[in-house]
Design brief:
Layout lengths: L2 H21 L4 H5 L4 E9 L11 H7 L3 E8 L3 E7 L13 H18 L3 E7 L3 E8 L2 H13 L6 H4 L5 H11 L5 E6 L8 H10 L1 E8 L1 H4 L6 E5 L6 E5 L3 H25 L2 E6 L4 H12 L1
Helix pairs in contact: 1-4, 1-5, 4-5, 7-8, 8-10
């Protein structure tokens, strides 16, 4: 992809996702993701039913009448996006690649964040931390993030295309690098052969973690198309399967359902909100549902 193609694609994503954040998610993001707490605003005279714990005793002593401190919500957030760049994201049989959908969703979160004057940062991960971009504000910074997502791993290197997944490593890095509480979106297909329950629980105690699973419809249901050559995107292993075999298709379906059940259990035990989106689905509806659940 040359520079003009990259800029064109960045612009298309900006137009779509910025429009979504301004027109559809306006207000919902604000109410779904809270600030760090309450910040002091001013003092005023005590009124009936005010909480006596809010009395400012220094001001009260000075003016010989009770005054209380007034607080307002401290809205500014730091938002971190953990984006999976392992080999399995470079796959898609409907509409788009999982990676392309992840880019659009990440950009939507990013533009929603700056609409609320929040900082936004990003961690690219596979089975190790690929890149860390510290949180900043502004449109220029978001366009840089989108460009990084679009051009990631473009060299086509075979070793690069076989990156595995370690979500626990990414969460542990987040916990180390982010000292103050942040809102963290993890965008992945969650094809991880390791158990990441404990790192997820630790991360969500310190931060507000939200999981967004992106999967291809083929993972949910195999079509009956006869002999099919398949390749594991993270190991490079290739094999032929007979999709006309009903038992094989049923086993594939059961594997997907069991895996979803395990993921649901992991997120439930960690008290992490999550949504699951297929590449042939409208992610806007799912994001609205997520925001409404948290409001």
């Amino acid at each position: 992809m040359d520079t003009s193609d990259i800029l064109s694609k960045v612009r298309r994503i900006e137009i779509k996702t910025r429009g979504l954040s301004q027109n559809i998610f306006a207000g919902q993001y604000h109410s779904a993701f809270k600030g760090r707490g309450m910040a002091f605003s001013e003092v005023r005279e005590y009124q009936y039913q005010d909480d006596i714990r809010d009395i400012d005793w220094n001001v009260t002593a000075r003016f010989h009448k009770p005054y209380v401190k007034v607080f307002e919500e401290e809205r500014e957030l730091t938002v971190m996006i953990l984006i999976d760049v392992s080999g399995s994201l470079d796959f898609g049989t409907r509409k788009q690649l999982k990676r392309d959908m992840a880019t659009e969703i990440a950009a939507t979160f990013a533009f929603s964040a700056i609409e609320n004057n929040d900082k936004i940062g990003m961690i690219f991960f596979s089975d190790h931390i690929e890149k860390y971009i510290p949180p900043k504000k502004g449109r220029k910074h978001i366009l840089y993030l989108i460009r990084e997502m679009l051009t990631w791993g473009e060299n086509g290197d075979e070793e690069e295309s076989q990156r595995k997944t370690d979500i626990g490593e990414a969460l542990e890095f987040l916990t180390r690098v982010m000292r103050r509480r942040c809102t963290c979106f993890v965008l992945s297909d969650f094809f991880d052969r390791k158990d990441f329950l404990k790192p997820l629980q630790i991360a969500n105690r310190k931060h507000d973690v939200v999981a967004v699973q992106i999967y291809d419809a083929l993972c949910r249901q195999l079509p009956d198309v006869g002999l099919l050559k398949v390749r594991d995107a993270e190991t490079g292993h290739e094999m032929y399967i007979d999709t006309s075999d009903r038992k094989l298709r049923a086993a594939h379906r059961n594997y997907f359902l069991n895996r979803q059940q395990q993921l649901s259990s992991t997120f439930s035990k960690s008290q992490v909100d999550w949504i699951s989106i297929a590449t042939d689905e409208d992610y806007v509806k799912q994001l609205i549902l997520l925001f409404k659940q948290r409001s």
